[in-house]
Amino acid sequence: MGEMITLTASDGHELGAYLCQPEGTARGGVVVIQEIFGVNGHIRDVAERYASVGYKTIAPALYDRFERDFQCGYTPEEIATGREFKAMANDAFDSVMLDVEAARKHVLDAGGVGVTGYCWGGVVTWGAACRLPFQAASSYYGAGILPYIEEKPRCPTILHFGNQDASIPMSEVDQIAEVHPECEFFIYDADHGFNCDRRGQFDPRAMNIAAMRTIRLFDANLD
Fold this sequence. Notes:
Blueprint: E1 3-8, E2 14-20, E3 28-33, H1 41-52, E4 55-60, H2 76-91, H3 93-106, E5 113-118, H4 120-131, E6 136-140, E7 157-162, H5 170-179, E8 184-188, H6 204-221
Parallel strand pairs: 3-4, 3-5, 5-6, 6-7, 7-8
Antiparallel strand pairs: 1-2, 2-4
Helix pairs in contact: 3-4
């Protein structure tokens, strides 16, 4: 189990974050980036899973600039609310990067730091890989990378997409891959949100394969 802590970004903004400590010596640090639903039960569970395999893990509450401690579930009404916050956060993307950087610095004592994120968090993960000094990045079904397609990751980066995901056409994935041959792209026979076991799109096979690839990436680069 983890604990909620408070981080301070370089512009003075204070935000919450869910911090999970591994047993024994850490293999490195991992920053987990939320979906549009905040640092809810699923994201806390993801953070705990990374801690269980040896990483000091932190999930920053990136909507705290707009509403403190926001989190929600997956009903149509909650999805609509999450999208409203996503729009505000996209308009403040540079500030979001400050919050991610505060999270990265908090786990630097564990060694190299990787970043992974889901849905909107997949886009933030891409931005973090391009703009911040992470050692590795794993982006899951990030719908909205195209506005940042000309930015280049500064670390080994892999991206996961589902071929049934209506929000991210395969033509868009192909476009990103053409511009970024240095990245690895993995396509699963799955829908958007396949990593989340609290959503109807959950696909355990895709989730486990993507997780193994992400852990392999982190093991190879976080030292």
